[in-house]
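Posted in: Structural Biology > Protein-Ligand Complexes

Title: Requesting predicted complex, cytidine-5'-monophosphate in pocket

I'd be grateful if someone could produce the 3D structure tokens for the following input. Sequence and ligand are given below.
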Amino acid sequence: MARRTKVYEGKAKILYEGPEPGTLVQYFKDDATAFNAKKKEIIEGKGVLNNRLSEFFMSGLNNIGIPTHFLKRLNMREQLISSCEIIPLEVIVRNFAAGTLCERLGLEEGTRLSRPLVEYCYKDDSLGDPLVSEEHIAAFGWASHPEMDEILSLALRVNDFMSGIFYGVGIRLVDFKIEIGKVFESEFQRLVVADEISPDSCRLWDIESGKKLDKDVFRRDLGDLSDAYTEVAMRLGVIQSNKSQLTEPRLVK
Ligand code: C5P
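-- Reply #1 --
Done. Output follows.
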């Protein structure tokens, strides 16, 4: 394979230069990390599942007119994406109380929120991605007021789309995180949903049993993470049967 130029390596993904200007190749690794990478493990097949699941959500969003960076899936672990400038914010949408919201406000996990709550964290691992307000975002110039209006609207539209898709397969979308990128096209600029959408970045609970089907399985040692993600992918029809589709072909000697 031709040697490629690595543009960026994160905890769960690598970005390579793409085949054409304005494109990148996003590679999904099997690395699972939590608590700002204090807990780490390799979960075989996770990258393959997240590549497929992110393709499923991003292409669905593209199809209903919510722009994303996703162009096409290339293979089991890679997708072609539009290169964009990531706004340094984690945009979190919550439908039910969980995680850091419960820690901060003393709410009981699972409390239904009266309306979707959108929060922003400043993307900086060394600071632990602190929660910030729109005043911080404006004061430090991370996004303009019109961009913030658009980000809020994108986040709520993504929430409606994903909540509906998950509801249809008996899963509650408790909360999720998205990232937003700026794509530059000649003198124009537009905002797109970027990074990934997968059970790494959502909280997903079975509606009937409350069973967790997301990264909390890894964070809290609740079982096999790849079983949980496989169940999500199977319920959505993203993979047909079992884990055999998640391992790369190997040379038979
Ligand atoms: O930890 P917290 O409760 O703030 O997370 C809210 C949602 O955002 C969860 O679905 C979590 O998986 C996601 N998240 C993420 N990446 C982060 C922080 C949170 O995907 N760095």
